[in-house]
Write a structure and sequence with these properties.
Elements (H helix, E strand, L loop, with lengths): L8 E5 L5 E4 L11 H4 L7 E5 L17 H19 L4 E6 L1 H10 L7 E5 L8 H19 L3 E2 L2 H7 L13 H9 E3 L6 E3 L3 H15 L11 E5 L21 E4 L7 H4 L1 H12 L6
Parallel strand pairs: 2-3, 2-4, 4-5, 5-9, 9-10
Antiparallel strand pairs: 1-3, 6-8, 7-8
Helix pairs in contact: 2-3, 4-7, 5-6
């Protein structure tokens, strides 16, 4: 990356298919989304990466763990993909924090032929803004209080069914969360979060500020937003602001919350396929 940090890029799937670039939400890892992206391997050229300080990547300086840096990383990853694997149209497939980064990057010029965004954390000035900020403050505080070391992956996985955010996940996701978001502690005593809780909370602290900067009218490439069910109580932050429906191709997955790709992966993959089939040159 521009500041010398390293982000590990992985390639899966069919190299002759349309190219998808995938990343994930705050505090998670793109390997956690395997129930979703594994459904795309036969037909798509998949480029996967974790946000800095997440997943396969080493933990670096906390002062560089912020939304503007993640936006710069997004652009650098797209350049690297073309340099390593040859240039061809790329469709971004992003969730939550990575979706927000992609939207902010688009304001500087669009390197993507299209994008599919799963439940981006956006808000607008006014009543919705205050609701969003209050929810973000509660969520950040809860993240900072959470345990960050565990005796085993099994212990961690055993806690997850009691968290509402994972209550709708498909079978196997709790174990997958433990495998993809924990790493062995350096002292050999148990496991710790790959993305430290203070780093995750720092992104949440400022998510509302950057969510206000997104302008859907300024997007130059086709954009599909697939949101959580707006009739359900949100499990993380308020869902996509429906006032923007007229500006993008918007849909939602019924009975799905913020982690919709882990709850209804087949429905999410089908919605993505339908959109990609309509993108010229994909």
């Amino acid at each position: 990356m521009a500041d010398g940090a390293a982000i590990i890029l992985r390639r899966h799937g069919n190299p002759d298919g349309p190219r998808l670039v995938l990343s994930h939400g705050n505090g998670l890892a793109i390997d956690l989304y395997y129930p979703f992206w594994s459904l795309l391997q036969d037909d798509f050229d998949l480029m996967l990466y974790d946000l800095r300080n997440h997943g396969w990547n080493a933990v670096g300086d906390m002062s560089a763990h912020n939304v503007p840096t993640i936006v710069l990383d997004h652009d650098r990853m797209l350049e690297a993909i073309d340099g390593l694997y040859g240039a061809k149209p790329k469709i971004g497939v992003f969730h939550s924090a990575s979706a927000l980064a992609s939207l902010l990057a688009a304001a500087q010029g669009d390197a993507l032929a299209a994008r599919v965004l799963f439940d981006p954390p956006l808000c607008r000035p006014g009543v919705g803004e205050y609701e969003f900020e209050a929810a973000a403050a509660r969520t950040a505080a809860a993240v900072r209080r959470r345990a960050d070391r565990f005796k085993s992956r099994e212990e961690f996985a055993g806690f997850l069914p009691f968290f509402p955010v994972f209550s709708r996940a498909v079978p196997g996701v709790h174990e997958l969360v433990a495998r993809t978001t924990l790493r062995p502690c350096a002292d050999g005593n148990g496991y710790e979060l790959r993305c430290p809780r203070e780093y995750e909370a720092q992104i949440i602290d400022f998510s509302g500020v950057y969510g206000l900067l997104v302008d859907f009218q300024a997007l130059h490439s086709p954009t599909k937003v697939i949101g959580a069910d707006p009739t359900l109580p949100y499990s993380y932050l308020p869902t996509f602001d429906c006032t923007d429906i007229a500006k993008v191709d918007y849909d939602f997955i019924p009975e799905a919350t913020h982690l919709l790709q882990l709850e209804q992966p087949r429905e999410c993959a089908a919605a993505l396929r339908e959109f990609v089939s309509s993108v010229p040159g994909a």
